[in-house]
Every structure is written in structure tokens, then in C-alpha cells.
Design goal:
Layout (H helix, E strand, L loop, with lengths): L7 E5 L3 H13 L3 E5 L2 H8 L12 E6 L7 H10 L8 E5 L4 H9 L4 E4 L4 H33 L3 H11 L4 H8 L3 H14 L5 H8 L4
Parallel strand pairs: 1-2, 1-3, 3-4, 4-5
Helix pairs in contact: 6-8, 7-8
Length: 212
């Protein structure tokens, strides 16, 4: 597995020794870390009480289940409410008594859980996999944004022609359906291809098929 470049791992645990050990472990594997001693610290850092500010880089969260104040599970719920889980995968750090709770969290969207004491290699492997997922999500979001910007640049008529082209309609049928001349269809079709940066109807269809 290729390492994700410029990735960031958040560590949230109230135990200083655990934070230090995790930070050392992850940094020894070339992973950037940012540690917090409470859920409140991460909430403030990400602005979860307002407009979330998740970094525009691959990231994941190592989160202790039990902490004073806001628990790891309560923070997890906030991340779900803000729609941040796809970009910010959560790996719970749990004691044996919390395993059933962590398993339930995985069913609700957490990436995984690691039971304390955990294997260093297994934990880093799961962190790297979580970062891969985050990177894929970021890529999808960027592709969707670029596509939306391209479509925004089309006129209303060009969008109508584009949809007909994607449906596989020939120019004559498009002209009949939109009540315009074949020549006008040809002009709009050429402009759609230019603005969408494609050379054929097949490329256009592929461009519009963006993973959700």
C-alpha cells in the first residue's frame, strides 16, 4: 500500500502517556499527528459547534471511547451529524469492557476499533487504510466539484442538448425534441464538448459518471 502524502492523524485521548506513545509511533512511520487531551479540544479545533473546518488533506481520528466531559461516543455522534465521517474516518481506542460499544459504533459508520493494549503494526496498518479511504473521499469530492463547475458554465440550452446526447439521441431527434434546427444542435453539441473538455459522447457520459 502506497503511503498517503501529507496525511494527518488526530489523536484524542485523556491519557497523556497514551497520546505520547501514539504520537511517537505514528511519527516514526512518517505520519503527521495532532493530539488533544479531550473531545472538547478537537471540537474547538474543527469548529464543530459552527462551520466545521476539516483539513483539505487526508486525515483520520484515533478516538478514546471513555473520557471525562464529552465522551468519544458523543464526539462520534457530532461527526455523524456534521457529515464528516467519510472524510474523517474514526478508529476507536477501547478497553475490553467497551468492545461491544465499539462494535456498535463500527456498524454506525466508524472505520474500526483497536482494543487496548493494541499491536503497533496492526494499528498503523488500520490508520494507513483509513487515510487511504479519506484520500479517496477527498478525490471524489474534488471531481464532483470540478464537474459541477463545468456544468455551471453551460447555458440552459446546452444542458438540454447535453442530456439528449448522453441519452444517445442523434442530432435529428434532438432537434425535433427541442424544436430547434439540426445546425443549431450541432453548434450546441460542439460547445458542450468544448466546455466539458471531451471529444465524444462516450467521453461525455464517462465524465458525468462520478462516484457518489
Amino acid at each position: 500500500m502506497q503511503p498517503v502524502q501529507d496525511a494527518l492523524v488526530y489523536v484524542v485521548d485523556d491519557d497523556e502517556s497514551v497520546r505520547q506513545a501514539l504520537a511517537w509511533l505514528l511519527r516514526s512511520r512518517g505520519l503527521q499527528t495532532q493530539c488533544f487531551d479531550s473531545a472538547e479540544g478537537l471540537i474547538a479545533h474543527l469548529g464543530l459547534d459552527h462551520a466545521p473546518q476539516v483539513p483539505r488533506q487526508a486525515c483520520c481520528l484515533l478516538l478514546d471511547v471513555r473520557m471525562p466531559g464529552i465522551s468519544g461516543l458523543a464526539l462520534f455522534e457530532r461527526l455523524i451529524d456534521k457529515g464528516l465521517l467519510p472524510q474523517l474516518p474514526v478508529i476507536f481506542l477501547t478497553g475490553h469492557a467497551d468492545v461491544p460499544t465499539a462494535v456498535d459504533a463500527v456498524k454506525r459508520g466508524a472505520f474500526d476499533f483497536c482494543e487496548k493494549p493494541f499491536s503497533d503494526n496492526s494499528l498503523v496498518d488500520r490508520v494507513e487504510q483509513a487515510l487511504q479511504r479519506s484520500a479517496q473521499q477527498l478525490h471524489t469530492q474534488q471531481v464532483q466539484k470540478s464537474l459541477a463547475e463545468l456544468i455551471e458554465g453551460l447555458t440552459e440550452r446546452e444542458r438540454e442538448v447535453m442530456h439528449c446526447v448522453v441519452e444517445g439521441l442523434p442530432n435529428k431527434l434532438i432537434a425535433d425534441q427541442l424544436h430547434i434546427s439540426v445546425r443549431t444542435v450541432e453548434v450546441h453539441r460542439a460547445r458542450v464538448f468544448e466546455k466539458m473538455a471531451v471529444r465524444s459522447a462516450v467521453e461525455l457520459s464517462n465524465r458525468l459518471r462520478v462516484p457518489g
